[in-house]
């Protein structure tokens, strides 16, 4: 019988030129075994954006991102390639050099930026009379169904060609919303949040299908994130945050959840998990997000300048015209715009509250059946 003893292994994770020292406990023999090579590819969801712990100024990688947590717990040698904002073509062009015949494990998130994750969220977050959320979501859906499958096939094929012996796991995205918008600077209606969640479901369907065709594993995180969406009492996804780049991404607890979901799949067989309706969450309770709060009524809110910058084009000619078409007086919008730019925190908060009341009235009116 061979006797295995636990040993501490010092791991070095290279992140954009910065070395992160990790300590993992692994099984081992008397001989020092080489740590399995693990390459983390993808976009901001793999880079750990949302944890307020970025260590490089370009890709915003975080030592609290789920790939680092996995590498630390399993004793893997991590090459952290994921980069905020990366599309499938950018992952293919800029991140695959780290792969090779000796790569044992690969995780990958990609596709969200191809369909315009950030601009769609930005458009839908505006007051209803200023935005074209439906148009933005419809355009994203068109790209998702008509262009994204081929893009994913090309990326996955390149990953397999460069890492022929690796266990590759594609990781999905959660639904962002649970039907309530509690953030002071966003104006998501119930219908808009439902549209965005359906788009997340469609993205999971396409991504899972293409991952399966490539022989890759797929991790569907949606079920685990039920009860932990934006504005939940136990948020795993940030709402609008400061800095704004951290918004609508998994926080520290969300990345821990990702790590717990993804880590076991790295040692499994090359099969894909079918996408089905997410079950009720059985995940353990998590602490609330620790990031700067931008929710209504919170005392740790931003400065008056943040209030002004959050919606800088409120009184532009185009938005004044949109307000008038929605039955909102131009003079009211100009007054609110002046309050937001006054550097008076009391006036700014009151202005945002009035904007929310106007938006709610607009959405109620829009939802009435026409006669």
Give an overview in words.
The protein has 371 residues and is of the alpha/beta class. Helices cover 38% and strands 13% of the residues. The chain has helices at residues 44-47, 66-74, 88-94, 117-124, 133-146, 148-162, 190-213, 252-262, 304-310, 317-325, 330-340, 345-367, and strands at 5-15, 18-28, 37-42, 77-80, 103-109, 167-171, 217-219. α4 runs antiparallel to α5 (133-146) and α11 packs antiparallel against α12. The termini are far apart.
Q: Which residues sit in consecutive blocks of at least 5 with pLDDT less than 50?
A: 1-12, 16-31, 269-293
Summing up helix and strand content along with how strands pair, one would put the structural category as alpha/beta
Mean pLDDT level: 84
What does the main sheet amount to? 5 strands, parallel
> Would you count the extended β strands for me?
7
Strand content: 5-15%
Strand order of the largest sheet: 4-3-5-6-7
DSSP helix count? 12
Radius of gyration: 22 Å
What order do the SSEs take from the amino end to the carboxyl end, as H and E? EEEHHEHEHHHEHEHHHHH
- Principal-axis shape equals elongated
End-to-end C-alpha gap: 83 Å
Overall helicity? 25-40%
Annotation keywords:
371 residues; two-stranded antiparallel ribbon; 12 helices; alpha/beta; five-stranded parallel β-sheet; disordered N terminus
Topology:
Layout: E1 5-15, E2 18-28, E3 37-42, H1 44-47, H2 66-74, E4 77-80, H3 88-94, E5 103-109, H4 117-124, H5 133-146, H6 148-162, E6 167-171, H7 190-213, E7 217-219, H8 252-262, H9 304-310, H10 317-325, H11 330-340, H12 345-367
Parallel strand pairs: 3-4, 3-5, 5-6, 6-7
Antiparallel strand pairs: 1-2
Helix pairs in contact: 2-8, 3-6, 4-5, 5-7, 6-7, 11-12
